[in-house]
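Lab channel / #folding
Pinned by the channel admin:
"Please post every new chain as: sequence first, then the C-alpha cells as a reply. Keep commentary short and put observations after the output so the thread stays searchable."

First post following the new format, from NK:
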Amino acid sequence: MKKEKRVFSSIFMALMVVFLYAPIIYTIIFSFNSSKSLTHFESFSLRWYEKMFNDATMIQAVIYTIVIAILATIISTIVGTITAIGLSKSRKLVRNLVEQVNNLPIMNPEIVTAIGLLMFYSAAHITKGFLTLLLAHIMFCIPYVILSIMPKLRTLDPNLADAAMDLGATPWKALTKVIVPQIMPGIVSGALIAFTMSFDDFVISYFVTGNGVNNISILVYTMSKRINPSINALSTLIIVIITVFLTITNLIPVIAERRMRKKLKKAQKK
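Reply from TO:
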C-alpha cells in the first residue's frame, strides 16, 4: 500500500509539474520558430526576437513595465515597512482596525478597484498616464508588503528597541540596526510580491493608463487579437527577467550569510 501511494504521489506531482510548466516551455520553444505557425515548429530562428527589438512600441512597453515595477516596489516596500512597524507599536484597537482596512484592497476584486481609481482620477481631473499608473501600482502593492511584514513583527520581543536604546543606540539606529534586520525576510517577501503584482498587472493598469503609456500586459492583450508570434518572444523575455530577478534575490541572502560565517570564523581564530 505504501509503495502504491508513493507511485500515485509521484505520478500526481509529475502531472502537476507538466500542467504548470508545459505552457511556459511551449512558449519558449515556439519563440524560436522560423514560421508564423503557433502549432508547427519548422526550424530554429531569432526572427521574432529581431522583430520584437525593432518594434519601438514593444521596447517602450517593456521599459515602462520594468521602471514602474521597480519604482512601485521600492516605494511600497518603504511605506509598507514604516507602516507595519508603526502599527506594531500602536494600540490593539487601532492596529486591528488598520489591518482590516489594509485587507480590503487585497480581498476587493481588481475590476472594482480599477473602476474606483478611474472615477477618482476623472473627478480630480488628473490626466491619465505614467503618474496615474505608478500611483495605482503603489496603492495596490502596499497592502501586500504590510501583510508580509506584520507576522515577523509579531514574533519579535516588544522590548527589543527599548533594550537597544538603553544600551546607547539612538531611535534611528535601533530601527535600522536592530528591528529592520530582524524583519528582513518579511521585507524581502513583501518586495518580491509587490514586484510580481506590479509587473504582470493588467486589469487596474488598463483602466488607469493613458497618453500612450502601456505596460507589457496591455500590449500582449492588444496583440492577442491577431496572430503575432512576437508575443512568444516577448513572453520569453518576461520569463527570463523574472527568473533573473528571483535568482538574484535568493542569492543575496545566501551570499550575505556566507560572508557573516567567514567573519565569525576569522573573529574566533583571532
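NK: Residues 230-269 form the longest helix (40 residues).
TO: also worth noting, The chain has twelve helices and no strands.
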